[in-house]
Amino acid sequence: MIYITGDTHNTEDMSNLSTKNMKLCCMEQNADFHAITAAIVLGDFGFPWSSDCTVDESGIHPVDHTDRYLLKWYNQKPFKILAVMGNHDNYDIIEKLPEIEMFGAKVLKVSDNVYYLKRGEVYYIEEKRILVLGGAMSDDKVWRKPHESWWEQEEWGEGEKKSCFAKIKENNKFDFVLSHTGPSAGIALADDFFSNEENLKQLHRDSNVVFNDKIESSISYKKWFFGHWHSDWGYEHYNESKYIPLYHQGIVIRTDNTAENNF
User: Fold this and answer.
1) Distance of alpha carbon 142 from alpha carbon 137, whole angstroms
2) Chain segment 141-156, per-residue pLDDT in tens
3) Looking at residues 231-255, what average pLDDT do you find?
4) Quick one: CATH architecture of 2-253?
5) In this structure, how many other beta carbons lie within 10 angstroms of the beta carbon of residue 67?
6) Which helix (H) or strand (E) holds 109?
7) pLDDT, tens digit (0-9, with 9 covering 90-100), for 82-141
8) Residue 67 belongs to what H/E stretch?
9) Beta-carbon neighbour count of residue 205 at 10 Å?
10) Is 75 helix (H, G, I), strand (E, B) or coil?
11) Three-class DSSP category at 254
C-alpha cells in the first residue's frame, strides 16, 4: 500500500510522516497503517538541507545535527520514504546521490530506506504506473542565498524535458502523476486566488507550471497529486476530483481494485 503526503520541509513538517498522523489518515480511509510499504513526499522534502554532507555509494553522511537526526528517524520507519523533487531541496547534494534501479527505473539513494524519485521517470510502484515530475519556481528566491537556501536546478533543463516527452510518447497512459507544483487547473482548486482567469495567467511565470500543463495535454491519467501550495483540498475532495493537492494529510493507494478511499 502507498501513502502520499505533502511537503515536509526538513523538520518543519516532519509530523506529516509521524506514526500518529499517518494512522489517523489511514483510519479515516479504513486502511491498515501496517500495510504501507512506501510513503511518498510530494516535494520540498528538504533533506538533507545542509551541504555539509558527504556522499558515497551507500548514500549521505551528514554533519549537520538536524540532518543526522532526520536520517536516523527515517531509517527507522517500517516503509520506504520516496521523495519527489521540489524547489526547497538541496539539488547540489541530490545531484551527487548514487543511482540505483528500483520500481522499473532509476532512483537516487539517500540511504537504505530513503530515495529521491527522478524527474521525468516512469515508475511501477505497487502495480501502479506513475509518472514523476517535480520542481517549482521559488517566489522568495530574492531573499535566499544561492546554493545555501535556493538552487537554480528547481526548474527543469531542456534535456530533462525532452527525455520526459520521449518516455510519454512510448506510452502516455498512467495511473497517477506526482509533481511538486501542479498544473494550472489543479492549482486553481488549491488556491482561490487563481480561480480568476487574469490571476491564473500569473502561474505561467513558473516554467514548471507551463511544463506541467504541456504534459497534462499529452497524457491520460486517473489522479494528479501535487504539493507546494500548502493545501489539503485534495484530501477533502479526493473522490470527486482528479487533482489532489496535499499538505499535512495523506492519501492511501491500495494495490487491489477496490475503492481506494472511503471518506
Assistant:
1) 12
2) 878 898 888 888 999 9
3) 96
4) 4-Layer Sandwich (3.60)
5) 23
6) strand 105-109
7) 999 999 999 999 999 999 999 999 999 999 999 999 999 999 999 999 999 999 998 888
8) helix 65-75
9) 10
10) helix
11) coil
The model's pTM: 0.95
- Of all helices (H) and strands (E), which one includes residue 186? helix 184-190
Average pLDDT of 210-215?
97
Of 230, 229, 233, 255, the C-alpha closest to 244 is 233
Q: 130 — phi, psi (to 5°)?
A: -125, 130
Tell me the HSE value of 32 on the side-chain side, using a 13 A CA sphere: 5
**Amino acid code (one letter) for 37:** T
pLDDT digits (tens, 9 = 90+) for 1-17: 999 999 999 999 999 99
> Omega before 98 cis (within 30°)?
no
Task: Tell me the C-alpha distance between 63 and 215, whole Å.
Answer: 39
At 190, list the grid cell.
488549491
* Predicted pLDDT of residue 258: 45
Write down the residue that cell numbers 492549482 correspond to.
187
Gap between the terminal Cα atoms of the chain: 17
In the chain, what are the domain boundaries?
2-253
pLDDT in tens, 108-119: 999 999 999 999
Q: Of 125, 126, 214, whose CA–CA distance to 162 is shortest?
A: 214
CA 194 to chain centre: 22
